[in-house]
Specification:
161 residues, Thiol Ester Dehydrase, Chain A, two-stranded antiparallel sheet, 35% strand, HotDog_dom_sf, thiolester hydrolase activity, Thioestr_dom
Length: 161
């Protein structure tokens, strides 16, 4: 991933999907971007049997929720900034409220509620699809404008057709 891009020049959901496809962990877990708006991202994960806490369990490993929240929050930072610049997770705290059933898809709704020059602050409830009460709530902070590789959309590459 190289270069930077302004999200205003591209369809933000397409950029988010492309980003998700380029991150092997998100791709392998089967995360899908459902919506990306001004400062919010909705992501979905349909769990397979390999994501259960153990073979006999009817609930998911808590680490699956953690990964979903981290990915959704990172994309919500990009949505709020309206540009693709390097970021890094500083802190991610999870309140696990009830077991996440392994037979229901998870939906995470990450909202970037405050930006400073250096840090983004986010909140992200996670729901079992079809239920009104969240199974977990994540609170995260991300460092902005970190040094490192930049994300480049296919449309922003000079060799794109």
């Amino acid at each position: 991933m190289a270069g930077t891009g302004n999200l205003a020049d591209h369809d933000p959901v397409a950029v988010a999907r492309q980003f998700g496809e380029q991150v092997p962990h998100s791709r392998d877990l089967g995360m899908q971007v459902l919506a990306m708006e001004a400062d919010q991202v909705r992501m979905r994960l349909v769990p397979g049997p390999e994501l259960r806490a153990d073979d006999a369990a009817e609930e998911l490993c808590t680490s699956v929720l953690y990964s979903l929240v981290d990915s959704a929050c990172g994309l919500a930072v990009f949505a709020a900034l309206r540009e693709l610049k390097p970021i890094a997770t500083l802190d991610l705290r999870m309140d696990y409220l009830r077991p996440a059933a392994s037979k229901r898809a998870l939906v995470a709704i990450a909202h970037c509620h405050h930006l400073t020059d250096d840090v983004a602050f986010l909140r992200c409830p996670v729901f079992s699809e079809g239920l009104d009460e969240p199974v977990a709530i994540g609170n995260a902070t991300f460092m902005r404008a970190t040094q490192g590789k930049h994300f480049e959309t296919t449309a922003s590459r000079s060799d794109a057709v």
